[in-house]
Amino acid sequence: MNNLLNNLDIMVSDPVCELNYNKDYELLIAIVLSAQCTDKRVNEVTKVLFDKYDIYSLAKASISDIKSIIKPCGMSDKKSQFVKDIAVSLVNNYDGKVPNNREYLESLSGVGHKTCNVFLAEYYYENTIAVDTHVKRVATRLNLVKDSDSVLQVEKKLEKLVPKDKWSKFHLQMVLFGRYTCKAIKPNCDNCLNKNICKYYKDNL
Fold first, then answer.
1. Contact 194, 4 (CB under 8 A)
2. Is the pLDDT of residue 180 over 80?
């Protein structure tokens, strides 16, 4: 495991969240919008959304207007309702602020366990490992987990393998490594330091 962590430190030396945000609620909503959508597209949409609305005016905005803005993110019927519900709840319960409260956050529309992990790690510097498609794919290829493992099983296994103080950094490194190097289609194995432990490389190259 130390070899993998060292390799990630070399290949993804300065991992940063690629979602643009200035305020806590902007990050939370951006993460919700990023489901089955690229961060690049989300950033284009949230620039328009948050130039027009702050959290208080967003809570009063019409679903149809929110939907028209976020449509490029896909699933706009559901996501527009999520955005509206989140804004209303934050304004009514926390004066528009996003609390460091997992139970409350996971009760919000569109905010599941993974979304909560991403937010808490990025905004409140909590030690969490959020498992998205990139993390699960890379962890499976590197023989850290089984392909049949559920998202929660992957999370728990990775938590046992990685020192707790490195969880959040590891998550970001795995996401970026999976996004740009260990891609789902045509992974860039030539520039990867993990070939010696990679099941995909062994089976396909």
1. yes
2. yes
